[in-house]
Write a structure and sequence with these properties.
Keywords: TPR repeat. The chain is α+β, with helices and mostly antiparallel strands and about 375 residues long. It has helices spanning about 25-35, 70-80, 105-120, 160-165, 185-200, 200-215, 225-235, 240-245, 255-260, 270-285, 290-305, 310-320, 325-335, and strands at about 1-5, 10, 15-20, 40-50, 50-60, 85-95, 125-130, 135, 150, 360.
Length: about 375
């Protein structure tokens, strides 16, 4: 689940600026921008909280042999974590054709979901079938091929234009952008730093690593090669790695709560964004097994943000670097089991992309 809105509005010249969602184009655009990519074979639900947009949930569409009741219960459980939810709009992303006289795709799923949500006083407000090149209303009685709207028209929506202006983009798939830049191999320098760390006591080694890591998290410059080699070595030591990961959210809490994303206060997401930037830079300086701790740390950040597909990709890349890297193995199993970070399940703490940390975004016909 990804945070989409319910932010503090931006005040400009004493006037509160709001972005309104009034058309299907706006909603479908929001789904893509919030997820960061166009999903495939997915059910995407945008939660409405009275006048505002809440979180966005993406789940894979159920296969024919799936347990329908269990599937719907899981979706409802995620939606109802927003205790103030009053409505939902949805998109079914699938290239499967919907021809005249055909039944609606996944009609049994959506009827069951609507019934279960109504028990929680949550109404399904609208929905669309979204194919590879066009979309159509889910609630029309007979699908009309001529009534399908080209997806290209979404580019002209007011909301899409504003989000693109803020720097947001929609990728064609969920893949995590792992750099493919030319690397500088620092393995020899990393090895020398590992020897120095082994000569220290654990508290001294951890304190030294935290000082460097904290300085970089509060800076805007990228680390030098000497600093990168030192940090790559730090992340190879389990106790140091865990402490550096726990320092990322910028909160005073137990290390366990921080790593598992279950603190009472939300993390400082801008600081998390900065940590991701630093880790990506470290990855371009890593070689072989040195990359596994960095890729695993990137995966944990993706998990904190509710991006299970991207977290899985990071963990898989980590295991390609070091097939025996335990944290990547365990974390990937957690993602495969469908376990979400508590931060991602609470609208007050869920990750909000930088592009959506500005004006409040309001719901269809409610502005």
């Amino acid at each position: 689940m990804t945070g989409a809105s319910a932010h503090d509005p931006r005040v400009v010249g004493g006037i509160v600026e709001r972005l309104s969602i009034k058309t299907p184009d706006d909603f479908i655009s929001l789904m893509g921008h919030t997820l960061g990519y166009w999903p495939k074979e997915s059910l995407v639900c945008v939660i409405l909280d009275d006048r505002r947009i809440g979180s966005t949930l993406r789940v894979g569409l159920p296969p024919a042999e799936a347990d329908l009741v269990r599937y719907v219960q899981d979706v409802v459980k995620f939606i109802t974590t927003d205790r103030e939810a009053t409505g939902v709009v949805f998109g079914i992303f699938t290239p499967a054709p919907w021809e005249p006289m055909d039944g609606r795709p996944y009609e049994d799923v959506m009827e069951t979901l609507a019934g279960e949500l109504s028990q929680h006083n949550i109404k399904v407000r609208d929905g669309w079938i979204i194919g590879e090149t066009s979309y159509t209303s889910y609630f029309q009685l007979i699908p009309d091929p001529l009534a399908r709207t080209p997806l290209d028209e979404i580019n002209a929506s007011e909301l899409n234009a504003e989000l693109v202006f803020r720097g947001s983009s929609i990728e064609p798939g969920p893949g995590f952008r792992i750099p493919i830049l030319a690397r500088r191999d620092l393995s020899e320098e990393v090895f020398k730093n590992c020897l120095r760390i082994e000569a220290m006591t654990p508290p001294v080694a951890t304190a030294k690593a935290r000082t460097l890591w904290g300085t970089l998290l509060n800076d805007v410059a990228l680390p030098t090669d000497a600093q990168s080699a030192e940090l790559l070595a730090d992340f190879k030591f389990i106790s140091v790695r865990d402490r550096l990961l726990a320092d990322i959210p910028g909160l005073d809490d137990s290390m366990g709560n921080l790593l598992l994303g279950q603190t009472k206060r939300p993390p400082e997401w801008q600081r998390v964004d900065r940590a991701q930037e630093l880790l990506l830079h470290l990855y371009t300086r890593a070689d072989g097994p040195d990359a596994a701790p960095v890729l695993t740390s990137l995966g944990i950040i993706q998990w904190w943000e509710g991006k299970g597909s991207r977290a899985h990709q990071c963990f898989q890349h980590a295991l390609e670097s070091d097939p025996n890297y335990k944290l990547a193995q365990l974390s990937d199993q957690m993602v495969a089991a469908g376990i979400l970070a508590p931060w991602a399940m609470d609208k007050s703490s869920a990750y909000q992309p930088p592009m959506s940390r500005g004006p409040r975004i309001e719901g269809m016909g409610m502005a």
